[in-house]
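The instructor's notes for this session suggest beginning with a concrete chain rather than abstract definitions. Hand out the sequence below and ask the class to guess, before any prediction is shown, which regions might be ordered.
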Amino acid sequence: MSRLDSALELAARAAEVGDRLIELVSPRAALRRQQFRKALAAYEAATPSRLRKWNADNRSGDSVVSLAGTSLRGYARQLEQNYDVAKGALDVLVNNIVGPSGVNIEPMPRTLDGKIHTGFARQLRDLHRNWKRRPEVTWELSYAAMERLACRTWIRDGELLAQFLEGRVPALDHGTRVPFSLELIESDLLPMDLDDAEKGITSGVERNAWGRPIAYHVYKQHPGDSTWRIDLNTKRVSADRIIHPKVAARIRQARGVSVFASVIRRLEDLKDYEESERIAARVAAAMTGYIKKGTTDDYVAPDSGKSDRTFTMKPGMVFDKLLPGEEVGTIDSNRPSGLLAPFHDAMMRFFATGVGANYSSISRNYRGSYSSQRQELVEGFVHYQVLTNLFVSQFSQPVWERFVRMAVASGQIQVPPDLDVHSMDDADFRGPAMPWIDPVKEVQSNKQAEMAGYKSAQQIIRERNGNPDETLDQVAEWRARARELGVSLDTDPSTVPAAAASAGGDKEEEEEDAADKVQRVDE
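After discussion, reveal the predicted structure:
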């Protein structure tokens, strides 16, 4: 019996004796000891052992983020700046969350009888199209560029802030018909170490007793600026003037955390390993060969007056200047390693799982059958939809609602008497459509679903990130233009009867020719 087994046996006997002594003094306490001992036995995962080492973390979400949030944000930015895999993963996530043109917004205000108010919706679309040219205060970003940058910051840093600027603001020209602009603010300006329990401030966020943010205390200047003088004073901004999109994993968590938090170590290790392999491959490429000169007994010290012997390396060369007893050897470094590619692919799969992106999109590895690619696309698209809905609820939708309210308040649009004012800012928000692997199969499937009544044409158009009303207007205008010019389109129902009649006549002629051939054969 080992010393460890002996110690465990002695501990068990001591515990048994202790239970009996406690039972004599306090039966209730002895009963509780037995209950807790059985509970530990029931949950083996809670019992540490030599083979199972873990650290439990029962701190609040705010405590964890306040200690590590700033460091995680800096590490994520460093990876984006210096590692192509991290930058590529961010590109994939942004492309699949907001797409190349930003979140598509289709106004859906309703009349008092519940129907879509097409006239008011059309006016909102026109105003929004004008506002999308200069949606933010710097005039440097279009709507698509602003949302893509906001989404990238939201993913990488875990959070961002945006301030609403409405109406007349000193020294600010909105540049659009609706006097409304956004000011994007990095999370660095929201101090992580600003806490005041009496005022309800946690990491710069002031909340009421129910945990709802009522104000944000932000720096007047970025603390990371390179200027010689930095103003670290804060100002209080009411929560009705600012939005705070964040990626939170805990209930009532005041600050967000980067999506790279769980994969930073893996990325650092993978980056170091790739760099080591590249260095080893360069060293191997610099090595050519060596000259073996017999045994150690044949060694003669080189003459210091003679220059080093050199050989010009070229394909197919012959070493004809070797001295007696010499032979040429080569160095086999086994670099680049054949294990690099499979190891890299495995690490990329784990990394893709951690950040919630498709492995094939990050690695640019599209090997596999149609079924496997379709399965990965469907499963990954669900996760992208979840992130899109989260981003829309925290950023796109509050901005749209504020835009509609300001459009009405500024007099740029009049509220019709038959409009349900409670639905004035209702809209359908759509991210990128799920890509097609085989367009023919996808179109045929949608066509059959519409004919069977499982889907409507409007639903199919919206799934492809289109606007049904605009699509219908464009189709009608195109067909009318074609008829005006005398052009026949296969998709125009007005040309179908003539085409069908022509096809029917050709078919009858073919049948008559076939019958004549059969008759001649019989004769």
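Then share the key points. Residues 498-505, 517-523 have pLDDT under 50 and may be disordered. The first strand starts at residue 104 and ends at 107.
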